[in-house]
Amino acid sequence: MSTVFALATPPAKSAICVFRVSGPGCHKHLKKLIKNKGFNIGQFHVRGFFYNDVLIDKAGLVVFKGPNSYTGEDSFEVYAHGSLGVMSSFIKSFKGVGFEEAVGGEFTKRAFLNNKISLNEAESVADLIDSVDEVGVTLSGGSLFGEMSKNIVVFADELDQIRVRVEAEIDFSDEGQEYMDESIVNDINKLKNRFDLFVGGCVNKKVCSQKNNVLLVGPVNSGKSSVFNRLLGFERALVSSVPGTTRDIVSSELFYESSSFSIFDSAGVRNTSDVVEKAGIELSLSEINQADLVIGVFEENDVVLIKKFKGLCGDVPFISVQNKIDISPLFDGGVFDCCVSAKTGEGFDVLKGLIVSGFKKGIKKEDYKYIVRDRHENLFKSVVGVLDQVLNSLNTGESLELVAEDLKIARSFLDELVGRKFSDSLLGDIFNNYCIGK
Ligand SMILES: Nc1nc2c(ncn2[C@@H]2O[C@H](COP(=O)(O)OP(=O)(O)OP(=O)(O)O)[C@@H](O)[C@H]2O)c(=O)[nH]1
Ligand SMILES: [Mg+2]
How far apart are CA 171 and CA 404, in angstroms? Predict the structure, then answer.
């Protein structure tokens, strides 16, 4: 195995950046980088790091001795100042002592190959990093921290025990001993029911990580960009008293009450001869179909116009908002779902609450235990299919050899889940999508 390094934090200016280095001999080369200063395993040190005899940074250093490390190999981590200049100097110094740049997922792949984690746990590392809300964190944690693997191993062992009974029956039945009776069908049924329950507690990552897109629409100058900025808590979109200010879609991320959304500001709608503005308006209207929730921002109590926007949304949930209540009277009569002032912030708690509860989709963490991927779901289906076949064979008096073989196949699907059985191409599929440094 080569010794690899990677930046584990984004390549952007920040307070600190973290480098990971892993592979045989990395401790020896580390000494060259810190001018032979010593270090203790697992202890935090501050050390000067040098490139071509020039001090590049005084940085935090933690050294790990394999197998007690993330990858299972000798490794170390450096916590340096997060400047682009420092990052590039470290990269040069690491290359200077012969370390190679890691590819995406290299560290987690090594952890799997060195038996530090199972394959489904390695997949969950990426799922946890991709998680966008509390549900994602809880469910990918369930998969990552071993609970899911433990369940799978128990199912695999139980399948083996049943298969051993079937094989004993094949081998010794002519000696008058009984290893199998009616209870075996019962035991397989029970196992299958528990497996079904386990599978029911798994939710596909695709369902879980669906981003909630919120789109702001409305007539020109109603204050959409001001509402957008107020929701975000900072001035992201341009605001002006000139109608038609927003011409393009502007987006940002919003975190609120353990949920995250992508929120989009759009061009105000009016009859216009300005070609660029017209294109912006068409874009806003076409974006409605991509949205999971639309917020209509209005200044006037124009019921016909509000209904028109609601109609454009079709099945997409729509919230009608009266803005500028600091200068206009509150319109009652149930036309608006909520009334706000982007200028003073009044009414925004209610609006944020409506956004969170306004989505049609969304899963509850109480309903599931683990996040899984298509690969897992396909293997689950295969296990269930084989168990059905086994039960059918036993009921119709098929040969026991066939039953034993099917039980072996079901077990091998479970082995694939945790990675006791894997191909290089499968590892490629899994780890190639990881970010560098993970
Ligand atoms: N008094 C008051 N003025 C507001 C409020 N919200 C927005 N405005 C003003 O209304 C004008 C238009 O605001 P924008 O946020 O640019 O409106 P918009 O809907 O994005 O406009 P377009 O992008 O041109 O369609 C600006 O002068 C804002 O300062 C509010 O709650 N109260
Ligand atoms: Mg605007």
Answer: 12
Question: pTM for this one?
Answer: 0.68
223 Cα–ligand 1 center, Å: 3
pLDDT band at 360; cut points 50, 70, 90: low
Note down the domain range covering 244: 212-358
Backbone angles phi, psi at 151, to 5 degrees: -60, -45
Nearest to 137 by CA among 6, 18, 260, 8: 260
**260 CA to centre of ligand 1 in angstroms:** 25
Using a 6 Å cutoff on CB, does residue 266 contact ligand 1? no
Detail the DSSP E strand segments found in 280-392. 293-298, 318-322, 338-339, 370-372
Q: For residue range 369-406, list pLDDT tens digits in order.
A: 888 989 999 999 999 999 999 999 988 988 889 999 99
**According to DSSP H, which parts of 145-210 are helical?**
147-172, 183-200, 205-208
- 216-250 pLDDT, tens per residue? 999 899 999 999 999 988 787 788 888 778 777 78
Q: Report the percent of the chain where pLDDT is more than 90.
A: 52
Eight-state DSSP code of residue 366: G
Helix, coil or strand: residue 236: coil
Q: If you search the block for the tokens 């060195």, which residue do you land on?
A: 114
Helix axes 119-130, 400-418, angle to 10 degrees: 40
Q: Is 220 in the pocket of ligand 1 (CB under 6 A)?
A: yes
State whether the beta carbon of 326 lies less than 6 angstroms from ligand 1. Answer: yes
Owner of token pair 């921002």: 297
Pairing type for strands 293-298 and 318-322 reads parallel
Q: How many domains does the chain have?
A: 3
Which of the residue ranges 104-108, 333-337, 423-427 has the most confident prediction, judged by mean pLDDT?
104-108
Per-residue confidence band for 107, with pLDDT thresholds at 50, 70 and 90: very high
Do 275 and 402 fall within a single domain?
Answer: no
Instruction: Count CB neighbours of 54 within 10 A.
Output: 8
Residues in Cβ contact with 53 at an 8 Å cutoff, skipping those fewer than 6 apart = none
Residue 182 sits in the same domain as residue 316? no
Same domain, 193 and 235: no
CA of 230 to the centre of ligand 1 (A): 11
**Whole-angstrom distance between the N-terminal and C-terminal Cα of the chain?**
17
